[in-house]
Amino acid sequence: MDEEVEDGDDGELQWFYLGMAAGFAVGFWVVCGTLIRKKSRRRAYFQFMDETKDKIFVAIAALMQFIG
Question: What is the signed CA dihedral for 34, 37, 42, 45, rounded to 10 degrees?
Answer without folding.
Answer: 0
